[in-house]
Design a protein that fits this description.
Number of domains: 2
Structural class: mainly alpha
Shape: elongated
Distance between the termini: 121 Å
Number of helices: 4
Radius of gyration: 43 Å
Strand content: under 5%
Order of helices and strands: HHHH
Length: about 190
């Protein structure tokens, strides 16, 4: 009869392992649960084998019955805890997949936008070079383009300097007007 009890315990371990592996996809969690089930089953085997009285009935005395009830409660608690953990892991996995999907979509959109802008800028540069080279024979060389760019930059700097001096004159005039206004108000 003792041999049959061991066989029942081994069948319980195998069945529990199969059920857990059915619900779990992560190997580390499966092995952790399997180890816990194995330890609990070994405790049950130890409790059964420690019986001093070798009777044919499984629940011979009150102590063995109480231990079996406690063991069943442990199995139930282990099952519930494992189920909760599996649900939590599934929820977290779904959240992570959603975040990754959104991030990847954002990156793809950014790269498409960057590609579009760089294509527009490239086309604009080609258009400017074509317009410049078509306006005169001097612009067929890089040197000609560089000379024209330098002339354009010089003209821009002169315009900015002229505007800056006019802006300073305007600020000076506004300051004088403000001073005159304050003098008038004091009268």
């Amino acid at each position: 009869m003792s041999n049959m009890k061991y066989q029942v315990s081994i069948i319980l371990i195998a069945l529990s392992g199969f059920l857990v592996s059915f619900f779990l996809k992560d190997a580390w969690l499966f092995y952790t649960v399997l180890a816990a089930i194995t330890v609990i089953s070994l405790i049950q085997i130890k409790l059964i084998s420690d019986k001093k009285n070798t009777s044919d009935t499984f629940f011979e005395n009150e102590e063995t019955c109480q231990k079996t009830i406690k063991l069943n409660a442990l199995f139930t608690q282990l099952h519930l805890t494992t189920k909760e953990e599996i649900e939590n892991i599934t929820d977290e996995n779904t959240q992570i997949q959603t975040l990754l999907h959104g991030a990847i979509e954002g990156l793809v959109a950014s790269f498409h936008g960057l590609e579009k802008e760089s294509t527009q800028q490239k086309n604009m540069v080609f258009s400017l070079v074509d317009d410049t080279s078509n306006s005169s024979e001097e612009h067929h060389t890089i040197k000609g383009i560089a000379n024209e760019a330098a002339a354009s930059l010089k003209e821009m700097v002169e315009s900015i300097t002229h505007m800056s001096s006019q802006s300073m004159a305007l600020v000076k005039s506004l300051t004088l007007i403000n001073d005159d206004y304050e003098k008038v108000i004091k009268l």
